[in-house]
Design brief:
The protein is mainly alpha-helical. It is 58% helix and 3% strand. The chain contains eight helices and two strands.
Amino acid sequence: MSDPADALDGVLQRYLQQAREAVVGALDGLGDYDVRRPMTPTGTSLLGLVKHLASVELGYLGDSVGRPSGIELAWDNDEDYASGADMYAHADESREWLLDLYRTAWAHSDESIGTLGIDAPATVAWWPEERRQTTLGRIVVHLIAETARHAGHADILRETIDGRGGRDHDDVGDQAWWDEHVHRVQAAAEAHRA
């Protein structure tokens, strides 16, 4: 008898959860300023990634599969969406509230997967007409890709803030190893300086 966790829906949920935890883990040990401040020329911040992903999950694995969460997001309208309001934490949006929102979105999404199954039909209203009709499983794959991509962004933002790399940073080497590694990478780049 095979383990139910090895079924495709269980595997997909595990990968999605690993990516979710990587995003949230990037905030560990940082103060409110550091999780909110823009770290790129386009204003990307760690807490902004959390807010964005909470919104995305509620839309995809809630509304698109016929299971709206009932959570009203103040920024979930065309005007605010166009202004990037889902990509940064407003001053009055607490870190705890946004993390709780994201975890609530996880629970709702996981319930959708468990209740409906990955073969359930879905309609993604904001996708092009020819791709709009899809399945819950296809949406989960999309969310894994999006969440993993943002987890990578979160790792880089965190490293830029305080030097802490991704979750395997300490397994690879100590600070001396990393200093030498950066030296090797810089030397290789110098060989191609114009």
